[in-house]
Design a protein that fits this description.
The chain is an alpha/beta fold. It is about 30% helix and about 25% strand. Strands 11-10-9-8-12-6-13-16-15 form a nine-stranded mixed sheet, with helices on both faces. It is elongated, with a radius of gyration of 23 Å.
Length: about 375
């Protein structure tokens, strides 16, 4: 590999490291990093911290100052070409006088993809696309899917014993996994635009579904930033069974309650600080989960975490709405009378849900398995 290609990959790897710093804070925007170099030396670095603030390129240009003229910019996502809450980054790079721009991947928004690159080309700037593209895609699965399909990336979190059980027959489930795994789940919440749970799980666990900074297992500054942007807490409660005295409603963070029909105490939800959304399916027997996900995408949710009981998790999987499963496995046996991992009534081997295991690693005393669903051919 030529020396320039090696250097390009090294600098893009650094830009991806910077982008990672926005993992918990950029929603609904993508996580983006930028590095500026002159004569093979870094003169500017930046990343997108949160929506409404400067993009990665603008922050890197501010650090570089006059040294940006004639520099090479390494950006993990195509510089934007439209004016939103901030001006176009492609124009900022042109104005700064950079001579070359290396981009990991094009903007996944089909309405603007390639337009930022075209502006750079038109200004006589050399452009290269595709350096560490797969790594850049892995950083923003939700943003990419939302831009391309109008749906968020759906991640289902499950915790089980070694024999595939989630709770004792009585419903007792705290705690199957250890503190390291629970901190890992907090980090999954923190990176999500919304966390979905069902009435059964909220009633059983009295869940708040908030991100708790002291449980993230992150450095203090990073934990505080993560907890500052709480995900939208979504309760799927078809028959409005969860009482307003439940801990879920005793929080100061936004909440959305989704039901299949309205009932007598609807007016009380305003006092509980929760929005109420009616989404019956075609048979009016359940909540329309696909419609719920489209609603969350319209609200700017890139990644959605489903933390629920066996019934709702199984319903998402059976409807083909799940992109990724994250399963925490504890080194203990709960026995044959304990509750199963999923309510997924399949009868034939041909109905089996096909998965691809992407990662498996120890998290404290437990194991975490990450698998992607495989669409039927």
């Amino acid at each position: 590999m030529p020396d320039q290609a090696i250097f390009d990959r090294q600098m893009m790897a650094r830009a991806l490291q910077l982008a990672q710093r926005g993992l918990y804070s950029t929603e609904p925007n993508p996580r983006v990093g930028c590095v500026l170099t002159r004569a093979d030396h870094i003169v500017g670095e930046g990343w997108h911290v949160r929506a409404g603030e400067g993009h990665a390129e603008v922050n890197a240009l501010a650090m570089a100052g006059e040294q940006a003229r004639g520099a090479t910019a390494y950006v993990t996502l195509e510089p934007c070409s439209h004016t939103g809450r901030t001006p176009p980054c492609a124009d900022a790079l042109v104005k700064a006088g950079v001579s070359r721009v290396v981009v990991a991947m094009q903007d996944p928004n089909t309405q603007v993809s390639g337009q930022g690159l075209a502006r750079l080309h038109a200004a006589g700037i050399a452009v290269e696309v595709g350096v560490l593209e797969s790594e850049a895609r892995a950083l923003n699965p939700g943003f990419i899917k939302r831009m391309q399909s109008g749906m968020p990336f759906v991640r289902v979190k499950l915790a089980m014993s070694l024999d595939g059980r989630t709770a004792m027959a009585s419903g007792e489930s705290q705690w199957i996994t250890g503190p390291d795994a629970r901190a890992d789940v907090q980090r999954l919440r923190a990176r999500s635009g919304a966390v979905i749970s069902g009435a059964d799980a909220v009633l059983q666990d009295n869940s708040a579904l908030t991100v708790r900074a002291d449980e993230l297992g992150l450095p203090a500054e990073e934990a505080a930033a993560a907890a500052l942007r709480q995900p939208l807490r979504v309760l799927v409660d078809g028959r409005l069974r969860v009482p307003l005295e439940n801990r879920f409603f005793q929080q100061n963070w936004p909440a959305l309650v989704v039901c299949k029909q309205l009932r007598g105490r609807v007016q009380d939800y305003g006092f509980a600080g929760a929005d109420l959304l009616t989404l019956p399916n075609a048979d009016q027997t359940q909540v329309d989960l696909a419609a719920l996900l489209r609603e969350l995408a319209e609200r700017g949710c890139n990644e959605v975490l489903v933390e629920s009981g066996a019934g709702l998790a199984g319903a998402f999987i059976q409807a083909g709405l799940v992109d990724e499963l994250v399963v925490y496995m504890a080194p203990k046996l709960l026995g044959s009378s304990a509750r199963a991992l999923l309510d997924l009534p399949l009868e034939l081997m041909a109905e089996a849900v096909q998965l691809e295991i992407m990662d498996m690693r120890a998290i404290g005393a437990d194991w975490r398995l990450t698998a992607r669903t495989i669409s039927p051919s």
